[in-house]
Automatic annotation (TrEMBL):
Cellular compartments per GO CC: plasma membrane
Membrane recorded as keyword: yes
GO biological process, any: peptide transport
Name of this chain's protein: Peptide/nickel transport system ATP-binding protein
Membrane topology reported for the UniProt record: Peripheral membrane protein
GO MF, one example: ATP binding
Family: Belongs to the ABC transporter superfamily.
This protein's UniProt keywords: ATP-binding, Cell membrane, Membrane, Nucleotide-binding, Transport
SMART domains: AAA (SM00382)
Domain ABC transporter: 8-256
UniProt-annotated location(s): Cell inner membrane
Pfam families named in the record: ABC_tran, oligo_HPY
C-alpha cells in the first residue's frame, strides 16, 4: 500500500478581483502520509485556509484553481465531477471549519445535523446512528449528550459549538481531516482534550490530518511535519522537531521568536518588523525581503526556490540560517 494519502503538486489558486490578481496559493507542493499530521502555519493571508478549500474544491468565483494536482489515494480530485466529489466530501475527506457559528445550521437541531452526516456516508440504521452521535459528543467532552442532541446551536456556547463541529467531522470515519484552527474558541483545558481526541482518532483509523493554525505550540504538540507558508508560497517544510529546534528560514525564526518564553523575563518580546505585503504587488524578488534581517540585493532581484538545506528541511531562501544560528 502506498504510504502517501494526499499529494499536492504545484497547486495554484488565484482570485481575479477588480483590484488585481490575488495569487492566494502560488505553486504549493507537499504530501500527507497515512496516520500523519501535517501542520500548515504562518500569518493570516498566507494561503493556509485556501489550500484546505482547494482540496475539497470549495473555491467559489472570482477564485479558481489555475494549475496543479491534488492526488488523494491515487486519484486527482481536480479531475473529478461534482457528483463524484459529493462522495469524497464528508465521507473520505472531512473539514473542521474555523467559525462554528457559520458551520452549523441554526434552524436544525444538533442531532439532525449529525444524523445527516451518517445518513449520507454510512449504512447504519437510525438507532445505531443515534448511538454513534451520543458517543461522539461524549468523546469531545459534551455532558448529557443524549439530551443535547435535541438542542439547537444557539443553546450552546462558542466552545461547545466548536466541539460539535469537530464531532461531525469525525463521525463518518473520514480518512483525511482538514482542521482549520480547530481549537480557536476553546479554553486551554478543553483544547488539550480535543487535540488528544483528534490524534487518537487518526491513529486508530490510520487516517491523516492537515492542521491549519497560527499556533506553533499546537503544531509542536500535534504535527509530525510542518509546512510554513508566506504570501501563498511554501518558505520552509520539514519534520516538526527540526523546524522548531533549528529553522532555516528567517521567517520561521521570526515566528518562533515571537512566542513568549518563561525563561526570557528580562527581554522584550521580539516581533517580525512590518506587515504582510499586498499579495497583488509582490514583484519579482523574495516576498519576505522587506521584513528580513538577512536580506541582500539578490533578494530583490530573484525569488528563491524551495531546496534542501539540512536534515529534513527544505527552505526557499538565498541565505538560510546555519544550524548554529537557528
Amino acid at each position: 500500500m502506498n504510504e502517501t494519502l494526499l499529494d499536492i503538486r504545484g497547486l495554484k489558486t488565484h482570485f481575479h478581483t477588480f483590484g488585481g490578481l490575488v495569487k492566494a496559493v502560488d505553486g504549493v507542493s507537499f504530501d500527507v502520509k497515512r496516520g500523519e499530521v501535517v501542520g500548515l502555519v504562518g500569518e493570516s493571508g498566507g494561503g493556509k485556509s485556501v489550500i484546505g478549500f482547494s482540496i475539497l474544491r470549495l473555491i467559489d468565483p472570482p477564485g479558481r484553481i489555475e494549475a496543479g494536482e491534488i492526488v488523494f489515494d491515487g486519484e486527482d480530485l481536480i479531475r473529478k465531477t461534482e457528483d463524484e466529489l459529493r462522495a469524497v466530501r464528508g465521507g473520505e475527506i472531512a473539514m473542521v471549519f474555523q467559525d462554528p457559528m457559520t458551520s452549523l445550521n441554526p434552524v436544525y437541531t444538533i442531532g439532525r445535523q449529525m444524523d445527516e452526516m451518517l445518513k449520507l456516508h454510512t449504512d447504519l440504521d437510525e438507532p445505531a446512528r443515534r448511538a454513534r452521535c451520543i458517543r461522539m459528543l461524549e468523546d469531545v467532552g459534551i455532558s448529557e449528550a443524549e439530551s443535547r442532541l435535541d438542542a439547537y446551536p444557539h443553546q450552546f456556547s462558542g466552545g461547545m459549538r466548536q466541539r460539535v463541529v469537530i464531532a461531525i467531522a469525525l463521525l463518518a470515519g473520514s480518512r483525511l481531516i482538514i482542521a482549520d484552527e480547530p481549537t480557536t474558541a476553546l479554553d486551554v483545558t478543553v483544547q488539550s482534550q480535543i487535540l488528544k481526541l483528534m490524534r487518537r482518532q487518526i491513529s486508530e483509523r490510520g487516517a491523516a490530518m492537515i492542521l491549519v493554525t497560527h499556533d506553533l505550540a499546537v503544531v509542536s504538540e500535534m504535527a509530525d511535519r510542518v509546512v510554513v507558508l508566506y504570501c501563498g508560497k511554501v518558505v520552509e517544510r520539514g519534520r516538526t522537531e527540526d523546524v522548531i529546534a533549528h529553522p532555516a528560514h528567517p521567517y520561521t525564526r521570526g515566528l518562533l521568536d515571537s512566542i513568549p518564553r518563561i525563561t526570557d523575563r528580562q527581554h522584550r518580546l521580539r516581533q517580525i518588523p512590518g506587515t504582510v505585503p499586498d499579495i497583488r504587488k509582490l514583484g519579482k524578488g523574495c516576498s519576505f525581503r522587506e521584513r528580513c534581517f538577512r536580506a541582500q540585493p539578490l533578494c530583490a532581484e530573484q525569488a528563491p526556490k524551495l531546496a534542501p538545506v539540512r536534515h529534513s528541511l527544505d527552505a526557499a531562501c538565498h541565505f538560510p540560517l546555519e544550524e548554529s544560528e537557528a
